[in-house]
Specification:
The protein is an alpha+beta fold and 201 residues long. It has helices spanning 14-28, 35-40, 43-55, 123-137, 152-160, and strands at 2-8, 63-71, 78-89, 106-114, 142-148, 164-174, 177-187. Helix 1 packs across helix 3.
Length: 201
Amino acid sequence: MALGYVRPARPDEAGEIARIQLSTWRVAYRKLIPRQVLDELDPEWLAERWREAITAPPSPRHRVLIAIEQAESTSEPTAHPVGFLAAGPADEAALAPDEKALAADVAAVTDLLVEPRWGRRGHGSRLLAAGVDLWREDGFRTAVAWAYDRDPATLNFLTSTGWEPDGARRALDVDDLLVPQLRLHVDLLAKPQPTAETERR
């Protein structure tokens, strides 16, 4: 039997977060992002960036949450970090081209990833539900997230939990390749928070 839960990430888990990020990108985005770009990403550099995000966030409303799968057996239980969510107040990275600013009560998801081999076990839903709870506590009224046009797994997951495109689009320049994205949003006061049963992601 396996149990899943979400909690704030710890500094000593920065390396695991970087590993999850790289392994997920290399599987989920292999057709979107040039292979050489993914191959050249430095896990140690990524781990240091995540360690900074955990230990010295720009504000108390910037958070990194980690999803854990704990397997129960007759011997000692084992716990595996399987995904993570990073979010905070919307800043320039959340904007569409020529957009000046988003309101102060808008939260922005910067990363929401579950390692593919642990997918469809409710971890994405638990991460998002925990994020929604914290955003509401922090006074946010809306949340936004960018997703790749050609990433149906993320798009289907978010729309199944009440998120909708808000009309904003942009294209990221990745090694001279333009990768289109669209932005989704959710009204944190009007929409019910997702549960682990909403979408087994």
